[in-house]
Design brief:
The protein is α/β, with parallel strands linked by helices. 47% of the residues lie in helices and 10% in strands. It has 2 domains: 71 residues, Orthogonal Bundle (Helicase, Ruva Protein, domain 3), CATH 1.10.8; 183 residues, CRAL-TRIO lipid binding domain (Phosphatidylinositol Transfer Protein Sec14p), CATH 3.40.525.10. The longest helix has 18 residues.
């Protein structure tokens, strides 16, 4: 029997209805996926059931799409060592960023089969002290943990709330075009996770102008999932019930510090998992056909090329 967490009735029904999950066939699907990985000489991947099923579910059980997604998951990471390598939660700088609570998964969902809500507060970090790469490294750690531990996150998806209160020009200046390209690829092509909505709150003046420029490059589907609320939390509550939000946002999910403390414990308890990550990735010298590199993936110059994993 597949070594995966049993789902609640509500999430099991959603996985069957929306993701083409067939409980009687899960083991067969996982075996086929694992056999392909074993034959893929250029990629070293985790092969445990709970990790792999996140890709199958995220790709609605299309094995071909799951293969492409897993390949891209490890390829983008191999080409972005500044975002992935050295993710030890006991490292002093990493622990400092965890304790800032820049990105937090909120504890409750609207219903048993609803998406996980993620609160992002960029102004919590000082851009003079930390780079955006430092912050995103911790974000990838949180995502990786939820991918294997949070069934709402994997099956129902995620809703993001981006709080832009007190964000400065120094924060925005850390977003180089090559970094934005990496982040876009990492979240769209290289992740099995489902984005179900994104809400912008406490937006600064002039934000709409920039936001509308970005929207021009988005698909209609993605555009329809973006909401700008300005400073009006009442309009946010129409989409994300107040009871799901921390006390600081008028909600009933307790103080933010309690959510940060729980997250810190989880990061530290999973330290071995993060340390193991350094052994996974792609070796482009072994890839059939043309090897992938940073330039072909992200369109950045040769100075960004990275060494392959040995």
């Amino acid at each position: 029997m597949a070594n995966i967490r049993p789902l609640s009735d509500a999430l099991s029904k959603k996985a069957i209805a929306e993701l083409n999950e067939r409980p009687e066939r899960i083991q067969e699907d996982l075996n086929a996926f694992r056999q392909w990985i074993a034959k893929t000489a250029y990629m070293r991947s985790r092969i445990d059931d709970q990790f792999l099923i996140a890709f199958l579910r995220g790709c609605k059980y299309s094995l071909e799409r799951a293969k492409e997604k897993l390949d891209m998951f490890y390829t983008v990471r191999t080409m972005s060592p500044e975002l992935i390598r050295g993710r030890d939660p006991e490292d002093p700088k990493t622990l400092e960023i965890i304790r800032l609570g820049v990105g937090l998964a909120l504890p409750n969902t609207e219903s048993p089969d609803s998406p996980r809500v993620i609160l992002i507060r960029p102004a919590m970090y000082d851009p003079a002290k930390y780079t955006i790469e430092d912050v995103i490294r911790v974000s990838t750690m949180a995502n990786d943990l939820m991918m294997v531990e949070d069934d709402n996150f994997v099956i129902a998806g995620q809703i993001g709330i981006l709080d832009l209160a007190n964000v400065t020009m120094a924060h925005f200046l850390q977003f180089s075009p090559s970094f934005v390209k990496k982040m876009t690829m990492m979240s769209q092509e290289a992740s099995p996770l489902r984005q179900k909505g994104f809400h912008y709150i406490n937006t600064p003046s002039g934000f709409e102008l920039v936001f509308n420029m970005f929207k021009n490059f988005m698909s209609e589907k993605n555009k329809s999932r973006l909401y700008v609320h300005g400073h009006d939390l009442e309009s946010l509550y129409e989409h994300v019930p107040k009871r799901l939000l921390p006390a600081e946002y008028g909600g009933e999910a307790g103080p933010i510090q309690d959510i940060i403390n729980r997250a810190e414990k989880k990061f530290l308890a999973n330290r071995e998992y993060f340390l193991e990550e350094d052994q996974y990735g792609t070796d482009e010298r072994k890839r059939p056909g043309r090897p992938k590199d940073a330039e072909s993936l992200f369109g950045v110059d040769g100075s960004f090329r990275q060494l392959q994993v040995d």
